[in-house]
Specification:
The complex is a heterodimer. Chain A is α/β, with parallel strands linked by helices. Chain A has a single domain, classed as Rossmann fold (3-Layer(aba) Sandwich). Chain A has four helices and six strands. A five-stranded mixed sheet of chain A has the order 2-1-3-6-4, covered by helices on one side. By secondary structure, chain B is an alpha+beta fold. Chain B has one domain: Cytochrome-c3 Hydrogenase, chain B, CATH 1.10.645. Chain B is 44% helix and 17% strand. In chain B, helix 4 (88-119) packs antiparallel against helix 11 (303-323) and helix 4 (88-119) packs antiparallel against helix 13. Classes of the chains: A alpha/beta, B alpha+beta. At the A-B interface, strand 2, helix 2, strand 3, strand 5 and helix 3 of A face helix 1, helix 4, helix 5, helix 6 and strand 14 of B.
Chain lengths: 150, 429
């Protein structure tokens, strides 16, 4: 089974780096595993979807309410997943959600596709990650190790 | 015509964040503002105090779509300070990696961002529904650009193999040769893309632009050349700041670039095409002529054809470079870095990208200035929108809004680079 883990984010956009942190930590722990960092370009993600049987994506997402910062969302994307149930706004030209929808349309989504999202709020320029998001990143690391490495 | 207001809070299919407000009273435009939410120039400040060797990797993070452009402009600025000129295979490999970036960026914009406007689709997803083979082919074509960048850049995202003086290492000949056959397929696909793009319906909208691009005596420009325009500009890039200026605009965080007369100017594929048609490869020229796309082209909606022609050129040039490469070469030249000020200007997919750095005796950056192509096009975009509304003021509101968004995308604006601002709302959790 061809597997890949993708941490999405930007090191210079504060909490946005959360997905990258998790990917880097996983790479330290499992150097032989196929783990990459991505800026979230949906077209590049589509290319990966085409080639892999199992993909795990970790990303920061904007929390609507401050009290939700640091919460985690785990979503398994199944072939019959209803994307009308999920709303993801992205300023990117062709984002993660568009990649997921198009992947479904083209029938190229991997059989096993998991999203791990960390609700965050500070996406301004900078390199400081908020404590709640750091903790959530550590929690996601444990969840991924427990669910996908054992 | 009754009063109407067109308000688009978040422009879809535009890299970054932007908005458009148009107020029409009677038959006149009362107000038109193309706003972008560009953050303060974080990176210019962030670079101060960093070692000059770090600059290419840091600036690569500014834009996820065109990291190579940022690397190349910064590297050329540093090499000017060092007084070195990169020639031979290393110079060719820099052109090759730029070919990869143009292919990636142009194909994304042509098929997935701009095509829906011309075909009457809300987004690329609808195209995928009706024409899945077209989208799959586009993805394959874009992927070849990625593969070039990955191979020379050293990894899939934010390339790290590029350095002042050359590359940290050069992949093996066999790795490049694997790309050749696929590039030949890509070249054929790009020819079809030019023919297809030229067949799209274009609004009647021509304008007397000042096109600005690099021009090199021997080649279609990527990394080197003088800055020229169709109105007689012909300067060394070190004179950029004596000829172009940035203005603060009250309603937008971004700066608007203007020429000496305070007027907008146009950078990007259409400008390059108009000013450098004779430097395209014979094949790219032949296919352009076949579809009757020859300079001067003054309809900005036809930028999509210019992107297609440049995609074809990039495939052709990549093949030429790989087939003629001398593989026995040192990946970089040795040099010593003195203190000084250096200028770099290269042709990012969206147009000229200007960098200036002052480096101290200790090799640390004392000041940095970065002017991205979208910042340079922004005033021109706003002027286009004004002219378009004036000309087509009687169109129904929805149709006018559609065309205005399309007009913004003519420039493939990259508004707030380096973020992806994912906002999530699960309805049925």
């Amino acid at each position: 089974m061809k597997q890949k883990i993708i941490g999405i984010g930007n090191d210079f956009r504060s909490d946005d780096a959360a997905g990258l942190l998790v990917a880097r930590k996983l790479k330290e722990l499992y150097p032989d595993f196929d783990i990459i960092e991505s800026d979230g370009n949906g077209v590049d993600l589509l290319s990966i979807f085409q080639e892999y049987d199992k993909v795990i994506i970790i990303d920061a997402a904007i929390a609507d309410n401050p009290e939700d910062v640091g919460q985690i969302r785990e979503i398994k994307i199944t072939p019959d997943f209803n994307f009308s149930d999920i709303k993801i706004f992205s300023s990117h030209s062709f984002s993660l959600l568009e990649a997921l929808k198009m992947g479904k349309q083209l029938s190229i989504l991997p059989d096993d596709l998991y999203l791990y999202l960390i609700l965050s709020q500070n996406f301004s320029f900078g390199q400081e990650i908020s404590e709640a998001v750091k903790k959530a990143s550590e929690k996601i690391l444990d969840i991924i190790i427990k669910n996908h490495f054992y | 015509m009754k009063n109407k207001t067109i308000k688009v809070d978040y422009l879809a299919r535009v890299e970054g964040e932007g908005s458009l407000i148009v107020n029409i009273k009677g038959n006149k435009i009362k107000d038109l503002k193309f706003k972008i939410f560009e953050p303060p120039r974080f990176f210019e400040a962030f670079l101060v105090g960093r070692h000059y060797t770090e600059v290419p990797d840091i600036t690569a993070r500014i834009c996820g779509i065109c990291p190579i452009a940022y690397q190349m402009s910064s590297i050329h600025a540093m090499e000017r300070i060092a007084g070195i000129k990169i020639e031979g295979p290393i110079r060719d490999l820099r052109r090759l990696i730029y070919c990869g970036e143009w292919i990636e960026s142009h194909v994304l914009h042509i098929y997935l961002l701009h095509a829906p406007d011309f075909l009457g689709y809300q987004d690329a997803l609808q195209i995928a529904k009706d024409h899945p083979d077209v989208v799959k082919k586009a993805l394959e074509l874009k992927k070849i650009g990625n593969e070039i960048v990955n191979l020379l850049g050293g990894r899939e995202i934010h390339p790290i193999n590029v350095r002042v003086g050359g590359f940290y290492s050069i992949p093996t000949k066999s790795e490049f040769l694997l790309l050749l056959e696929r590039l030949k397929w890509a070249r054929d696909a790009a020819i079809e893309t030019v023919r297809w793009a030229a067949s799209l319906p274009f609004p009647d909208f021509d304008f007397d632009y000042e096109f600005v691009a690099l021009r090199h005596p021997d080649e279609y420009p990527f990394n080197e050349g003088r800055l020229v325009s169709n109105r007689g500009l012909d300067i060394d890039i070190s004179e950029y700041e004596n000829n172009f200026f940035e203005e603060h605009v009250a309603y937008s965080n971004a700066l608007h670039s203007v020429n000496k007369k305070g007027e907008p100017y146009f950078v990007g594929p259409l400008a390059r095409f108009n000013l450098n048609f004779d430097k395209l490869s014979p094949l790219a020229q032949e296919i352009s002529k076949e579809v009757d796309f020859v300079p001067p082209v003054t309809n900005p909606f036809k930028s999509i054809i210019a992107r297609a022609v440049e995609t074809l050129y990039a495939c052709d040039e990549a093949i030429r470079i790989i087939e003629n490469m001398d593989w026995n070469t040192k990946p970089y030249v040795d040099f010593e870095m003195p203190e000084g000020t250096g200028y770099g200007c290269t042709e990012a997919p969206r147009g000229i990208l200007y960098h200036r750095y002052k480096v101290g005796k200790d090799g640390l950056i004392q000041s940095a200035k970065i002017v991205p192509p979208t910042s340079q096009n922004q005033k021109q975009i706003e002027k286009d929108l004004y002219e378009f509304v004036t000309k087509y003021i009687n169109l129904p509101k929805d149709e006018l809004q559609w065309k205005l968004e399309q007009a913004i995308r003519n420039y493939d604006p990259c508004i707030s680079c380096a973020t992806h601002f994912l906002k999530l709302d699960i309805i049925n959790e």
